[in-house]
């Protein structure tokens, strides 16, 4: 049976990939050691997702292995060997804020962990397709020097600029910019994935995501924009907005749309390829626009405060140009826009979030 190995399998994208590729009849092997809770605290734990996958998907096998552990990773790859046809690498330290608190852990997880996985793939499954979830932070703060215009609810690029129609393409330079330490560790991993494709002829693809989102996202203050925003609206928890007059713009891609991207690449892989991937012009919003939608959907006002100082290296405006991927894979189209995404996040999580707020402190402590 064809085997898919998915790292970060209990996370947002990983869990969606587990369910999707298992539904195609593949045996799915997950690698996830639960570090998200270590990064962001017990509220960000994905243990409930791991347990749900193990319970509901018969073809799923979970391995609690740190991707930096060469021996542990190689044991998994050696077990399945040439039956491995797909690796989807989504495990990461995903926050540029958190990276500054512990740059060594950030770099070893994001860069060294990717190196371990690539080498295991080359040794035990060299013909497999290797998909890497990269980030638009590889471009650093270069997008902030685009000609941006302030509108009533958002920043927008000047209509005369070449990026105005479709967004930011892969040709944007990754040099001479402030990346954040997280951006640096992801650049290193991104370049490694490209190089294994070009140098060794492996079938590798880097997908430089904008905001990845969906109902299974364990959103926290440092990572998970839409999910955490909706959670704060539902629970009344305080939400802090950092800089740019609350008008910073992000494109948002639903994890289901992203997994269909991966499937298209899996069916017709390329070597050392790079794509910007996100909601593009179809699915994007500013902070102000997202808050308005959350308040409408939840029926509650957001408990928000504004801090005039933006996060260092944070983007003012980001919309991904999807035309390169759509040229290579014309059958793929986005299905979810921001209002649909937020409604689904609310519908799936509303009761669980409310129940968690109502639990006594002693119960919450024992459950965390």
Kindly state the mean pLDDT as a whole number?
93
Task: Please state roughly what percent of the residues sit in beta strands, choosing from under 5%, 5-15%, 15-25%, 25-35%, 35-45% or over 45%.
Answer: 15-25%
Count of strand segments: 15
Straight-line distance between termini? 37 Å
Summed up, the helix count is: 13
Q: Supply the helix-strand structural class.
A: alpha/beta
Please state how the strands of the largest beta sheet are arranged side by side: 3-2-1-4-5-8-12
Question: Secondary-structure blueprint of this entry?
Answer:
Layout: E1 3-7, H1 12-23, E2 27-31, H2 35-40, H3 47-56, E3 60-63, H4 70-80, E4 84-89, H5 96-101, H6 103-124, E5 129-135, E6 148-150, E7 155-157, H7 181-200, E8 203-209, E9 211-213, H8 225-235, E10 239-242, E11 249-254, H9 255-267, E12 273-277, E13 284-286, H10 287-298, E14 304-307, E15 317-318, H11 323-328, H12 338-358, H13 361-367
Parallel strand pairs: 1-2, 1-4, 2-3, 4-5, 5-8, 8-12, 9-11, 10-14, 11-15
Antiparallel strand pairs: 6-7, 11-13
Summarize the structure.
The chain has 368 residues and is an alpha/beta fold.
General description of the model:
A 7-stranded parallel β-sheet has the order 3-2-1-4-5-8-12, sandwiched between helices. Strands 9, 11, 13 and 15 form a 4-stranded mixed β-sheet that branches. The protein is of the alpha/beta class and 368 residues long. It has helices at residues 12-23, 35-40, 47-56, 70-80, 96-101, 103-124, 181-200, 225-235, 255-267, 287-298, 323-328, 338-358, 361-367, and strands at 3-7, 27-31, 60-63, 84-89, 129-135, 148-150, 155-157, 203-209, 211-213, 239-242, 249-254, 273-277, 284-286, 304-307, 317-318.
